[in-house]
């Protein structure tokens, strides 16, 4: 059994955002001005942009997938993995990030509510499969052989996030909710802290600065995730009984 601030903790939900991967060198969305090839990523990550200029959108995600190959998970990813390995089923990790740094940092469970760069979806056969390093509208789907159907398996603005029922079930049952490196600017993830509080959970924010929903958190670890997440995990594991 874990204890946090003298309270028994059975179920933990952890939400991560771009801030946990920033220290690995991956740009966040709102910190850096986020302009890519003179386009705002917010204008590219949409079904309308894909319909309007598919090659621009394919290029954007191919370039982010290439960038991912050059970066490594950091100590914050590894600290969360250590918590998951030690506590087991009592930790549910949900991430807004589409990178694979949680998995490469040792997490065996990570719910990608916004999809994954390393996955691609064929609109002809519906198959989700490991993304090719680069692909576009002329690439044949490895599953069905059709061309013109492959798209990045990433949730665009206006599309439904993945696994919301499962996420909400974990939030309704959690005793501790931890948000790491997210601005609280985008729903539904920004509303998770309120669902956790409604369930009676203790809520903790780890961020370099106050997020848009900072007021809903009981405790704040202010600083870089690579410093703060390890401190929090050590605090939780030091108070473990049995
Ligand atoms: N350590 C801790 N926090 C950090 C660090 C760091 N090294 N660097 C940045 N941050 C924090 C910033 O203070 C900010 O609150 O991470 C957050 C990054 O916010 P965003 O760029 O808005 O990223 P995120 O919250 O993940 O965005 C949510 O919006 O654009 C959509 O789908 C996209 O998943 C994304 C979603």
Describe the structure.
Strands 5-4-3-9-10-11 form a six-stranded parallel beta sheet, with helices on both faces. It has a three-stranded antiparallel beta sheet with strand order 7-6-8. Strands 1-2 form a two-stranded antiparallel ribbon. With 242 residues, it is of the alpha/beta class. The protein has helices at residues 18-22, 41-44, 47-52, 54-69, 75-87, 101-104, 164-172, 192-198, 225-238, and strands at 2-4, 7-9, 12-16, 91-95, 111-112, 115-122, 128-130, 150-154, 176-180, 202-207, 219-222. It folds into two domains: 1-26 and 74-114 and 161-242, 3-Layer(aba) Sandwich (Rossmann fold), CATH 3.40.50; 29-70 and 117-154, SIR2/SIRT2 'Small Domain' (2-Layer Sandwich), CATH 3.30.1600. Helix 6 links the parallel strand 4 and strand 5 (111-112). The model has no long low-confidence stretch (mean pLDDT 94). The longest helix is centred in the N-terminal third of the chain and has 16 residues, at 54-69. It is built from nine helices and eleven strands. The site of adenosine-5-diphosphoribose has 22 residues, from helix 1.
List its traits.
242 residues, alpha/beta, Rossmann fold, SIR2/SIRT2 'Small Domain', 2 domains, three-stranded antiparallel beta sheet, 11 strands, binds adenosine-5-diphosphoribose
